[in-house]
TrEMBL record:
Signal peptide: none annotated. Keywords: Glycosyltransferase, Transferase. This is ADP-heptose:LPS heptosyltransferase. InterPro entries: Glyco_trans_9, LPS_LOS_Heptosyltrfase. It comes from the Bacteria. Pfam families: Glyco_transf_9.
Length: 360
């Protein structure tokens, strides 16, 4: 059996963006084994899950590939990994992990028959290199990469299949079901500049509780301060429940699949909700809207902040030139998205557009 390796060892949302390209590979090469080189999180999430990936291999901690660029790897662990990968005898290795400054040399050590992927101006070339342009749709970017192998698909929308174990884990931490609709709020994001203010989320949560929803506020353990900030600013706290640190990604998928509405910053859980076809309001910074915009609008409402300068020092953040990283402030770049706009989007999705949930 021929094998295709796909390198993308980053976060949940990044995996979701790659799903249409992975599906294109599966549809075009049905007899090939698709091996995803990712993190333990990917292995746990994809184990037994129907989808385009046959197998996940966890990559070791490596600078610029799953770890910070200045990370000091374990040479013995890394060398053993690459020996194992060469024994796999991949026919094709595809780089979907950034511009290739670190990931292209990584990919070249797999010993694949052919390498394909992205190349930023400062990155070494692969056998087939596609220019890495930052402000471009992530979903279309990876579809373009696999198109150079002849892979195509008619579906641009990421799809995640839910499993019984997902629902079971979610039910274990949810309140006993009383028939009320469910809302999920996710106030976190990898970059704190993508955090909508907690007081704003609190107003949305109060509205949802008043409308009869049971509200669950999700977050990683390190995001407890965000979840607590919402609860502390709510007027109707009894209708909201923290699930901070209580769910694996499988359990998160289960929770989202049971939701009637999701309100979230631009983050992995938001994109997972999109892939589960759950009505969702997403709060985006304008640059991330370009790269991460959803492919459909019937049950999605992306709201855009047009702030491009740091609210504290005024440094321009949209041009991504040398020196832009001099700004180390973590002030929100999305605070100008209004509560009224979010509430209007929630009302849109829980009204006529919401009825499309079951058929889209």
């Amino acid at each position: 059996m021929k094998k295709i390796a796909v390198l993308r060892a980053n976060a949940l949302g990044d995996f979701i963006f790659a799903l249409p390209a992975l599906s294109a590979l599966r549809e075009t090469f049905p007899d090939h084994e698709i091996v995803y080189l990712g993190k333990k999180m990917h292995r746990d999430f994809l184990c037994g899950r129907p989808g385009p990936v046959d197998r996940v291999i966890v990559v070791p901690p490596y600078p610029g590939v799953g770890e910070a660029e200045n990370y000091e790897p374990d040479p013995e662990q890394v060398n053993a990994f690459f020996r194992q990968m060469r024994e796999e005898q991949f026919d094709i290795a595809i780089q979907m992990h950034g511009g290739g400054g670190f990931s292209n040399p990584f990919l070249q050590q797999l010993g694949a028959g052919q390498t394909v992927g992205l190349q930023a101006p400062d990155a070494p070339p692969l056998d087939i290199s596609i220019p890495y342009i930052i402000y471009y749709s992530e979903i279309l970017r990876y579809l373009e990469v696999v198109s150079y192998l002849g892979a195509t698909t008619r579906n641009l929308v990421p799809v995640v299949n839910i499993m019984e174990k997902d629902i079971r884990e979610a039910r274990q931490v949810m309140q006993p079901h009383d028939g009320s609709p469910v809302a999920v709020i996710h106030p976190g994001a990898t970059d704190p500049r993508r955090h909508w203010p907690a007081v704003n989320f609190a107003r949305v949560a109060d509205y949802l509780v008043s409308a009869g929803y049971t509200v669950y506020i999700n977050g990683l353990p390190e995001e407890a301060y965000l979840v607590n900030g919402i609860l502390q600013n709510m007027q109707q706290r009894s209708g909201a429940h923290s699930l901070c640190g209580k769910l694996s990604i499988c359990g998160l998928a289960g929770l989202l699949s049971l939701a009637d509405i999701v309100v979230s910053n631009d983050s992995g859980p938001l994109h997972l909700a999109y892939a589960l076809r759950i009505p969702a309001v997403g709060i985006y910074w304008v640059g991330n809207m370009i790269t991460g915009t959803p492919m459909t609008s019937a049950i999605n409402r992306p709201l855009i902040s047009w702030t491009t300068r740091c609210p504290l020092c005024g440094l321009e953040a949209s041009r991504l030139k040398s020196g832009i990283s001099e700004c180390r402030h973590h002030a929100s770049f999305v605070a100008d998205v209004s509560v009224d706009d979010v509430l209007q989007a929630v009302q849109d999705l829980t009204g006529a557009a919401y009825k499309l949930k079951a058929v889209v």
